[in-house]
Write a structure and sequence with these properties.
Layout lengths: L4 E3 L27 E6 L8 E7 L8 E6 L10 E3 L3 E2 L3 E5 L7 E7 L20 E3 L7 E9 L1 E8 L6 E7 L9 E8 L20 H7 L6 H15 L22 E7 L12 E11 L3 E6 L9 H22 L12 E5 L1 H4 L14 E3 L19 E4 L14 H28 L12 H14 L4 H11 L14 H18 L3 H6 L5 H9 L3 H17 L15 H4 L6 E4 L5 E6 L4 E6 L4 E9 L5 E7 L2
Parallel strand pairs: 1-11, 16-17, 17-19, 20-22
Antiparallel strand pairs: 2-3, 3-7, 4-5, 4-8, 6-7, 8-9, 10-24, 11-23, 12-22, 12-24, 13-21, 13-23, 14-15, 15-16, 18-19
Helix pairs in contact: 1-7, 3-5, 5-6, 6-8, 7-8
Amino acid sequence: MKVGKCNFRLVAALCAATLIAASCSEDAGTGEQIVLTQISPFSAGAGDTVTVSGRGFGADPAAYRVAFSPVGYSKDEGSRCAAPFEISGSTARVVVPEGSYNGEVRFESAAPFGGGIFGVGAPRIPSNELDVEIPLGAGEAAKLFCASIDYSFPLSYGTALDEYVLIAFDSSVPITAGMTTDYRVDTDDPCDAKDASERPEIPSTGRLDRVRAAVADPGPFDRRKREEIARVLSAGAPAGDGGQARYSRAGSGAAPPTAQFNVYGDIEGSTIDPESYTTVTANWAYEGEHTVLYLDASTHPTCITDLELQQLGGLFEYQIYETNTAAFGSPSDINNDGKVVILLTPVVNLLTPPGGAGEGFIAGFFMPGDLLPGLLPSGTSNGMEIYYSMVPDPNGIYGNTYEKPRALDVISGVMAHEFQHMIMFNYRVLIYGSGISAAYMAELWVDEGLAHIAEDLNGFDESNIGRADLFLADPGKATLIHGGDALDERGASFLFFRYIGDRFGEDIYRRIVQSKKTGTANIESATGVGFKELFADWAATLYFESRGVAPADPKYRYTSIDLAGDFAPLRVRSTNLCAGPFMGAVESMGPEFIALGLGGPALFDIDLTCSGYGRMNAVLLRTQ
């Protein structure tokens, strides 16, 4: 049985949308209820001017907004709104907003709760509704948000050459991690299967297994350490003395030639348990104005040379430090030495089991506890700005073989990635949380996405491309916002944040870091766009850019990466609905791309339904 049904009409052109609030509209100037009688022309595309006729209009265009909705008006996010630019007592002229689609149009008050005693008035009653046709042109995208279990909409093929791609995504919050929602796309209308088009899927490039083996992968480690430090902060009372800085120095002056550090060394152990840590003696290898680099004294001499250590230290000092602080903000300095310590140690190598690097490996990490020594048990904190990296291991001495050129590239990316985490922790916990609250900690997918952006901004692209390739191979199976652990989820978050940086400018990354907002609210605040809207725009961009389709709107573009040239093909599933229904499953906030095959010219009713807890939304692209 179908429930919660949302109907919208679909014929041939769409674009984008802006989220709106609940609406109403009694004319502010006349007090008379607005009644609409005609819209001319009846059929118009986004960006065209239409004239709405009726009675009861006032003289002030700013008092109104015109709402175009393909899904009715029970869901505010389903409407596209524009202010009339010219109005009189009987007519108003308005530009059809980008993203509008077939459905209805009505007038609403621009400020439905303005005026009245204490500044609050009763909501104004909206006008009646008129039918309107807004065709979808090639390269345009329609966002038809309803968050319903059941969609039903007519799709009109003007000719057999028309091509449409449906992007289906579930906006419900999953009950458990990895939960998927079953969906079904079907038509009840008779059609000829032999005339319908079904484009074959583009085959895999065959490189995804190699990608997985070459990409650093902390697995659930990052989530566990984040959750454990949040519990410590929530407890509110110190658990013990985590220790002072492992070497004694305040202000300028050379770091000691040798020092000892507490290093996490048990991948199955708690990150706040001293039993999970080992003590490492390390030798000074490089020092600059912002940087001290140490090498574990037990490292085999075949792993890395003094020159390579100097080069890594200089890379952080003269490139990564400057790039990351410009992009995200400043690190903390809890031990007052003005330095960030980088420790290369085989203890990190040993966190990946022998032979386990084929499924991804741990290449380095930042431990939040190093910046909270007063809240942690002794032996679990170094009381300074420090992060940790693997060492190259061309001979497999520590369980897995990491050839030196590739390993040095990975370590370079680790330095940029983990430094972003350190900066984020400074703002979200030490500054905004005063070092005692986890209330402003960034969600994992945001923190990891921006850490991958840090790699990108520093020119370390190979790992990001590898993670993104895993996402593009099956995007519906990778949640954007409810994960952050898996490689494909990290690939999704990298592509999403790269998109909003291209669209809104790279200073948006600093705004996201230096905010007290979290999760999707943080992204909405930084961009000024509703998150579901952004998700739909990003999903449309993935298709247009990956498949080389020219979009009608430049916001469906990447400007900093070549998605078609440098990345694996986007998986687009294909269906011939005349031959029967198409079924699949998606994770929440993971986009599923489906090429619709029906043939034409004809009008078809398309049903998009899903299982119980799901709340499906649709983006429709016309590709030609």
